[in-house]
Sequence to fold (166 residues):
Amino acid sequence: MDVTDDVRAWAEKKFSKLEKYFRREADVQLTFSTVKHGSIVKLEATIHHRGWVYRAETANHDEMTAIDKAVDVIDRQIRKNKTKLEKKFHSGAFDNFDSAIEYEQNDHKIVKNKKFPIKPMSVEEAVLQMDLIGHEFFMFRNADDEEINVVYKRKDGNFGLIEPGD
Fold:
Protein backbone atom coordinates (compact mmCIF):
# COMPACT_ATOMS: atom_id res chain seq x y z
CA MET A 1 0.00 0.00 0.00
CA ASP A 2 1.10 3.56 -0.53
CA VAL A 3 1.93 5.57 2.57
CA THR A 4 1.43 9.29 3.04
CA ASP A 5 4.20 11.74 3.84
CA ASP A 6 2.78 12.03 7.37
CA VAL A 7 3.05 8.27 7.92
CA ARG A 8 6.58 8.25 6.48
CA ALA A 9 7.61 11.12 8.80
CA TRP A 10 6.02 9.39 11.81
CA ALA A 11 7.89 6.15 11.03
CA GLU A 12 11.21 7.98 10.67
CA LYS A 13 10.64 9.82 13.95
CA LYS A 14 9.66 6.70 15.89
CA PHE A 15 12.33 4.37 14.48
CA SER A 16 15.03 7.03 14.98
CA LYS A 17 14.52 6.52 18.73
CA LEU A 18 16.16 3.10 18.30
CA GLU A 19 19.40 4.70 17.02
CA LYS A 20 20.75 4.78 20.57
CA TYR A 21 21.27 1.01 20.36
CA PHE A 22 23.32 1.05 17.17
CA ARG A 23 26.87 2.34 16.81
CA ARG A 24 26.71 2.18 13.05
CA GLU A 25 23.93 2.75 10.59
CA ALA A 26 21.19 0.11 10.60
CA ASP A 27 18.99 -0.86 7.67
CA VAL A 28 15.28 -0.53 8.46
CA GLN A 29 12.63 -1.96 6.14
CA LEU A 30 8.91 -1.38 6.69
CA THR A 31 6.24 -3.18 4.69
CA PHE A 32 2.66 -2.00 5.01
CA SER A 33 -0.32 -3.99 3.77
CA THR A 34 -4.02 -4.10 4.45
CA VAL A 35 -6.11 -7.04 5.64
CA LYS A 36 -9.80 -7.60 6.32
CA HIS A 37 -11.00 -5.62 3.29
CA GLY A 38 -8.67 -2.72 3.98
CA SER A 39 -9.87 -2.05 7.53
CA ILE A 40 -6.70 -3.30 9.25
CA VAL A 41 -3.16 -2.13 8.53
CA LYS A 42 -0.47 -4.78 8.87
CA LEU A 43 3.12 -3.66 9.37
CA GLU A 44 6.20 -5.84 9.03
CA ALA A 45 9.30 -4.08 10.37
CA THR A 46 12.79 -5.51 9.94
CA ILE A 47 16.07 -4.01 11.10
CA HIS A 48 19.39 -5.42 9.87
CA HIS A 49 22.43 -4.40 11.90
CA ARG A 50 25.87 -6.03 11.95
CA GLY A 51 24.43 -9.37 10.88
CA TRP A 52 21.64 -9.41 13.46
CA VAL A 53 18.01 -9.16 12.48
CA TYR A 54 15.27 -7.65 14.61
CA ARG A 55 11.71 -8.18 13.43
CA ALA A 56 8.19 -7.18 14.42
CA GLU A 57 4.76 -7.71 12.90
CA THR A 58 1.85 -5.59 14.08
CA ALA A 59 -1.68 -4.90 12.96
CA ASN A 60 -4.01 -2.04 13.83
CA HIS A 61 -6.70 0.19 12.41
CA ASP A 62 -4.22 2.96 11.59
CA GLU A 63 -0.63 3.16 10.41
CA MET A 64 0.61 5.37 13.25
CA THR A 65 -0.43 2.92 15.98
CA ALA A 66 1.00 -0.01 14.04
CA ILE A 67 4.33 1.86 13.84
CA ASP A 68 4.27 2.63 17.58
CA LYS A 69 3.65 -1.04 18.41
CA ALA A 70 6.43 -2.24 16.09
CA VAL A 71 8.96 0.14 17.66
CA ASP A 72 7.94 -1.07 21.12
CA VAL A 73 8.35 -4.73 20.11
CA ILE A 74 11.81 -4.18 18.63
CA ASP A 75 12.88 -2.00 21.56
CA ARG A 76 11.91 -4.80 23.96
CA GLN A 77 13.77 -7.38 21.85
CA ILE A 78 16.94 -5.31 21.89
CA ARG A 79 16.80 -4.48 25.60
CA LYS A 80 15.95 -8.07 26.55
CA ASN A 81 18.85 -9.50 24.59
CA LYS A 82 21.41 -6.67 24.81
CA THR A 83 23.58 -8.32 27.47
CA LYS A 84 23.34 -11.74 25.84
CA LEU A 85 24.25 -10.27 22.48
CA GLU A 86 27.23 -8.39 23.87
CA LYS A 87 28.56 -11.54 25.52
CA LYS A 88 27.83 -13.97 22.70
CA PHE A 89 28.23 -11.93 19.50
CA HIS A 90 30.85 -13.23 17.07
CA SER A 91 32.25 -10.38 15.01
CA GLY A 92 31.22 -10.55 11.38
CA ALA A 93 28.42 -13.08 11.77
CA PHE A 94 26.09 -12.97 8.78
CA ASP A 95 28.15 -10.35 6.90
CA ASN A 96 27.15 -10.04 3.26
CA PHE A 97 23.59 -11.20 3.88
CA ASP A 98 22.03 -11.39 0.42
CA SER A 99 18.52 -10.08 -0.11
CA ALA A 100 15.74 -12.43 -1.10
CA ILE A 101 15.14 -13.25 -4.75
CA GLU A 102 12.17 -14.81 -6.48
CA TYR A 103 12.35 -17.53 -9.12
CA GLU A 104 10.49 -20.63 -10.27
CA GLN A 105 11.98 -24.10 -10.68
CA ASN A 106 10.16 -27.20 -11.98
CA ASP A 107 6.60 -27.32 -10.61
CA HIS A 108 7.61 -25.95 -7.20
CA LYS A 109 7.68 -22.22 -6.80
CA ILE A 110 10.50 -20.89 -4.65
CA VAL A 111 9.29 -17.55 -3.27
CA LYS A 112 12.30 -16.65 -1.16
CA ASN A 113 15.98 -17.49 -1.34
CA LYS A 114 18.39 -16.28 1.34
CA LYS A 115 22.14 -16.71 1.28
CA PHE A 116 24.41 -15.87 4.15
CA PRO A 117 27.80 -17.05 5.38
CA ILE A 118 27.42 -19.53 8.19
CA LYS A 119 29.69 -18.52 11.06
CA PRO A 120 30.41 -20.77 14.03
CA MET A 121 28.24 -20.13 17.09
CA SER A 122 26.96 -21.96 20.12
CA VAL A 123 23.55 -23.61 20.24
CA GLU A 124 22.42 -20.91 22.70
CA GLU A 125 23.45 -18.15 20.28
CA ALA A 126 21.55 -19.87 17.46
CA VAL A 127 18.40 -20.08 19.59
CA LEU A 128 18.78 -16.39 20.48
CA GLN A 129 19.19 -15.40 16.81
CA MET A 130 16.18 -17.54 15.82
CA ASP A 131 14.14 -15.85 18.54
CA LEU A 132 15.24 -12.36 17.43
CA ILE A 133 14.14 -12.89 13.83
CA GLY A 134 10.92 -14.61 14.86
CA HIS A 135 11.47 -17.78 12.85
CA GLU A 136 10.58 -21.36 13.73
CA PHE A 137 14.04 -22.69 12.81
CA PHE A 138 17.61 -21.49 12.29
CA MET A 139 20.58 -23.08 10.50
CA PHE A 140 24.09 -22.47 11.86
CA ARG A 141 27.60 -23.93 12.13
CA ASN A 142 28.09 -25.40 15.60
CA ALA A 143 31.22 -23.89 17.21
CA ASP A 144 31.88 -27.13 19.12
CA ASP A 145 32.25 -29.48 16.14
CA GLU A 146 32.07 -27.17 13.05
CA GLU A 147 29.08 -29.17 11.71
CA ILE A 148 25.98 -27.57 10.19
CA ASN A 149 23.10 -27.80 12.69
CA VAL A 150 19.50 -26.59 12.84
CA VAL A 151 17.67 -25.42 15.93
CA TYR A 152 13.88 -25.31 15.83
CA LYS A 153 10.95 -24.34 18.00
CA ARG A 154 8.81 -27.30 19.04
CA LYS A 155 5.03 -27.20 19.41
CA ASP A 156 5.40 -27.72 23.17
CA GLY A 157 7.38 -24.44 23.42
CA ASN A 158 10.77 -26.08 23.86
CA PHE A 159 13.58 -26.16 21.30
CA GLY A 160 15.05 -28.96 19.25
CA LEU A 161 18.47 -29.46 17.68
CA ILE A 162 19.11 -31.30 14.42
CA GLU A 163 22.66 -32.57 13.94
CA PRO A 164 24.13 -34.58 11.06
CA GLY A 165 24.50 -38.26 11.87
CA ASP A 166 25.99 -41.41 10.42
In short: The chain has two domains: 5-81, 103-162. Confidence is low (pLDDT under 50) at residues 90-106.
